[in-house]
Specification:
The complex is a heterodimer of chains A (157) and B (555).
Chain A: E1 2-10, H1 15-24, E2 30-37, E3 43-51, H2 55-67, E4 71-76, E5 82-93, H3 99-109, E6 112-117, E7 120-127, H4 129-139, E8 144-149, E9 153-156
Antiparallel strand pairs in A: 1-3, 1-4, 2-3, 5-7, 5-8, 5-9, 6-7
Chain B: H1 3-13, E1 18-21, H2 28-34, E2 40-43, H3 47-61, E3 65-69, H4 73-87, E4 92-98, H5 114-118, E5 124-127, H6 134-146, E6 152-158, H7 159-163, H8 187-199, E7 203-207, H9 209-214, H10 217-227, E8 231-233, E9 248-251, H11 258-266, E10 269-273, H12 279-282, E11 293-298, E12 312-315, H13 318-328, H14 336-348, H15 362-372, E13 378-381, H16 385-393, E14 402-403, H17 414-424, E15 430-435, H18 445-451, E16 457-462, H19 467-476, H20 491-497, E17 501-505, H21 511-520, E18 525-530
Parallel strand pairs in B: 1-2, 1-3, 3-4, 4-6, 5-6, 7-8, 7-10, 8-9, 10-11, 11-12, 13-14, 13-15, 15-16, 16-18, 17-18
Helix pairs in contact in B: 1-2, 1-6, 3-4, 3-17, 8-13, 10-13, 11-14, 15-16, 15-21
The chains are: A alpha+beta (157), B alpha/beta (555).
């Protein structure tokens, strides 16, 4: 099961390595990771998405995250009400021929084109996992050249 | 002040009286300041020895042990000692020099990524990139090392930071927002615990190193006597409850006493205090204490329900929680029948070995050390059979009197640790009970002991084998003794060439006299006891078995 874990940490060098180490030492892959400064400059916020095969091990990892000196707070959003978003950028084929069809699709999702160049459009979209999946699926008919995701971020409701 | 001056000033203010270590290129500014400092510096012969000595000093005194090494190989040599202290939750500050800040990451001479290497084997670590941070970092390091669940903290200081100048400001307080150990137990949990205690018929106290760390030994004794429950100890917990007390069952687990293991398995309530259900204690987890409810008192939330699911966790300092608990206990369980049963197990399955008139049994040597020192010595051990026999055949009555590498199981720990112990407790007789294999892993520290007049006593149980591995090969690998037969030096001559006193004893009749003589001599003494070659440690729970499935006919 995928877990979205939110961690408030000291904004210092080495902190990311400590946190990543707790997962890697157990052979756990981090599916996505988003890190940035918060409102307060000396605190960073990390949103970690991890696929836990064993809930007990994940429980242990969460406790060990809390034990790290540089970790201020850990919240597992999995069973809590929260809002979740991920931003994607995607390059798709863009020509006079498919222009109208693509625009109609993007309108449906409230996605937008942020750049056009050499018959390629860069599309920006942010949404929940299911919407992203659907949009990417529908974009495939135009020919997806590249897809970049930020990883999820989440906030408690 | 320079960074090096600030470091020494801070160490003195932290109350550091003694340090262990080894100089090198990038710690020259620190060593230059040490030259004028009142801190006693013990030059070991290997950095691993320095880390273990600092560790032993910390275990014996309860103070923070401090070691110092240069960058690169100096620092990597410390790592085994750091990992050892981490596994056993020992307060230690390890200071390493680092190459100049602008050379970090350039594969400079004697460069190693020390914070990277020690990240998973230390409680915390720091790379100090600016001299203005140094005083605060040192203050935080000592605070982190010595509070909560203690552990080693590494401070990596580049040489240019040691040379840089800034105003010295001593931080009056330490406040780390992500680090606030819970000190007192949750009142509701304590109430629930008292209810379970009152309802129990077969309670047992299972206590570990946390009792010693927190100084809760008197409270443990009061609890055991109040509710009339037997007490079993982990290896790290030996000494936390008097081994001579009628409620003591000694150590449990793989080489624990049969009665401790039976009592644990049959109990209906386990009160675990500062212990972490290590695999050497639980045996097969699914079969562990099937009828027991478990109360688990520990300062580290990650220890709770890690391997064994517990019913009532109480997070906090053991001493505080026991004081709270003792106040709350109104109704005591009736344990007469239970104690009678425990007593029967004790009578039926005592620790035993077959004495021999011509050959020295290793257990006999330890018994004789126990008698000769009236149980008042501090014992350090190496790792293996020597260690397990030391757990079984010496009765520890005081906390901090048994010093051994528990979690990591580091061969070569005993001798340097003994030096640290002796320096911390100069009035105590200190014996390192060693094997002929382990002692050679840090035998160079004999020079440190002699040179610094640290009169530790070393008893080698010399069976010519890596005994514990040989025992497993005998029992589980059809006696195929692959790489366990040892070719040894003449230990007496080795001792003498270092300036220590060496003795060899091959006859059981001479054991006691040699021990007494060693105690009297005011020098480092090594006794080479030639013991039975293929003696085994029993009882023994085979790996992966339930702990009441012990082998060993004598037990």
């Amino acid at each position: 099961m995928k877990h979205t874990i939110s961690v408030l940490v000291e904004n210092k060098f080495g902190v990311l390595a400590r946190i990543a180490g707790l997962f890697s030492a157990r052979g756990y892959n981090i599916s996505s990771l988003a890190v940035a400064e918060t409102f307060e400059q000396d605190i960073s916020h990390m949103t970690i998405v991890v696929d836990a095969q064993d809930e007990k091990i994940l429980e242990q990892i969460k406790k060990q995250l809390n034990r790290l000196i540089d970790v201020i707070m850990v919240v597992d959003f999995t069973k809590k009400e929260h809002s979740e978003r991920e931003l994607i950028l995607s390059k798709v084929n863009y020509s006079a021929k498919n222009k109208a069809k693509l625009k109609a699709l993007l309108d449906k999702y409230q996605a937008k084109i942020i750049q056009c160049k050499d018959e390629t459009a860069v599309i920006e979209f942010s949404g929940e996992q299911q919407e992203i999946k659907q949009l990417v699926h529908e974009l495939e008919q135009f020919g997806v050249k590249e897809l970049v995701k930020t990883g999820r971020i989440a906030i408690a409701s | 002040m320079t960074g090096a001056q600030i470091l020494i000033e801070c160490l003195e203010r932290e109350g550091v009286e003694i340090m262990f270590g080894y100089p090198g290129g990038v710690v020259l500014p620190i060593f230059d300041r040490l030259y004028d400092s009142k801190i006693r510096f013990i030059l070991t012969r290997h950095e691993q020895g320095a880390a273990h000595a600092a560790d032993g000093y910390a275990r014996a005194t309860g103070k923070v042990g401090v070691c110092l090494a240069t960058s690169g190989p100096g620092a990597t040599n410390l790592t085994t000692g750091i990992a050892n202290a981490y596994m056993d939750s020992i307060p230690m500050v390890a200071i390493t020099g680092q190459v100049k800040t602008f050379l970090i990451g350039n594969d400079a001479f004697q460069e190693a990524d020390v914070t990277g290497i020690t990240r998973s084997i230390s409680k915390h670590n720091f790379l100090v990139k600016e001299v203005k941070d140094l005083a605060r970092v040192i203050r935080e390091a000592f605070h982190i090392a010595s509070t909560g669940r203690p552990g080693p903290v590494v401070i990596d200081i580049p040489v240019d930071v040691q040379q840089a100048e800034c105003d010295f400001i001593w931080p009056q307080e330490v406040s780390i927002r992500g680090y606030k150990p819970t000190m007192f137990g949750h009142a509701g949990q304590i109430k629930k615990a008292t209810r379970l205690i009152a309802e129990s018929k077969k309670p047992i106290l299972y206590i570990g190193g946390g009792v010693i760390t927190s100084g809760a030994h008197l409270e443990v004794k009061e609890l055991a006597e109040t509710i009339q429950a037997p007490v079993t100890m982990t290896m790290m917990g030996l000494g936390a409850f008097p081994g001579t007390h009628e409620l003591s069952l000694g150590m449990l687990g793989m080489h624990g006493t049969a009665y401790a293991n039976h009592a644990t398995m049959e109990s209906d309530l386990i009160i675990a205090i500062g212990a972490r259900f290590d695999d050497r204690v639980t045996g097969r987890v699914s079969a562990f204490a099937p009828h027991a409810k478990i109360i688990h008192i520990d300062i580290d939330p990650t220890s709770i329900s890690k391997t064994v699911e517990v019913d009532i966790p109480i997070v906090g300092d053991a001493k505080n929680i026991l004081c709270q608990l003792l106040k709350e206990i109104k109704k005591k369980p009736n344990t007469n029948k239970w104690l009678q049963q425990v007593h029967e197990w004790k009578a039926r399955h005592p620790l035993r070995y077959a004495h021999h008139d011509d050959k020295i049994k290793p257990q006999f040597v330890i018994e004789q050390i126990y008698e000769a020192t009236r149980g008042e010595a501090i014992i350090t051990t190496e790792v293996g059979q020597n260690q397990m026999w030391s757990c079984q055949w010496y009765k520890y009555t005081n906390p901090r009197s048994f010093i051994s590498s528990g979690g990591l199981g580091t061969m070569g720990f005993g001798l340097p640790a003994a030096m640290g112990v002796k320096l911390g407790c100069p009035d105590k007789t200190v014996f390192d009970i060693a094997g002929d294999g382990s002692i050679q892993m840090n035998i160079q520290e004999l020079m440190t002991a002699v040179c610094n007049k640290i009169p530790v006593k070393i008893a080698i149980l010399n069976n010519g084998y890596l005994g514990m591995v040989r025992q497993w090969q005998e029992l589980f690998y059809k006696k195929r003794y692959s790489s366990t037969k040892l070719c040894n030096p003449d230990f007496v001559k080795v001792a003498e060439s270092y300036g220590a006193v060496g003795m060899r004893v091959a006859n059981p009749k001479d054991v006691r006299a040699a021990i007494e003589k060693a105690i009297e001599i005011d020098n480092t003494v090594l006794i080479d006891f030639i013991v039975e070659e293929e003696e085994n440690v029993y009882p023994m729970v085979p790996a992966g078995e339930a702990i009441n499935r012990m082998i060993g006919g004598m037990a």
